[in-house]
Amino acid sequence: MITIEKKSLKVGKYVNTEHVDTVVRNYKQERWVYNSERIGKEDSLSGWYSIEEMEEFIERAKQSGGDGIRIYFGAYPTDYAEKPEYAGRQTLVFVATKNKETEAGPANKDIYIQTEEGSNILAYNAVYLCPPICNPREISPSARKGLGITIVDQGEKGMSVI
């Protein structure tokens, strides 16, 4: 009997609160403030999906031969009519991928599936963005917990509390 060892594709790791606070604070100071200024309103700081949605997407990715998910950072068009409050704000797009060996080494290729419209990327979006929808009455109690505040020195423009 031949035993085939499956190579793990894991690349991430669990991190602690300090790590999360650090990277979020850095993002707020180094990117968010400038993004918000450029689009003329507070850009999104986070996105939320239910576990149910994520499990369904992961299952569909697996059924389509996927073994990974690429998360693209994106931005809605400035004239986004479907949800005008999201217009111009950044978002997250999940795309199912399959690891393939190439001459250059391993590569994670986006998965395309056949739909009624033809070949289409297997992707998931429409995340619950905050801002603009951050009102504690509008979200579940488990989503109300934040990462605290960050004070950003904007030089001559003063200080911002985010």
What are its keywords?
22% helix; single chain; 30% strand; two-stranded antiparallel ribbon; 10 strands; 162 residues; alpha+beta
SSE order and pairing:
Blueprint: H1 17-39, E1 46-48, H2 51-63, E2 68-75, E3 90-102, E4 105-110, E5 112-115, E6 118-121, E7 123-124, E8 128-130, E9 151-153, E10 159-161
Antiparallel strand pairs: 1-8, 2-3, 3-4, 3-7, 5-6, 9-10
Mean pLDDT: 83
Number of helices: 2
Sheet with the most strands?
4 strands, antiparallel
Give the beta-strand count: 10
Listing every helix as H and every strand as E from the N terminus to the C terminus, the arrangement reads HEHEEEEEEEEE
Strand percentage? 25-35%
Q: How large, in whole angstroms, is the Cα Rg?
A: 19 Å
Helix coverage percent: 10-25%
Overall body shape: globular
Structural class: alpha+beta
Any low-confidence stretches, pLDDT <50, length ≥5?
A: 136-145
- Could you give the distance between the termini? 60 Å
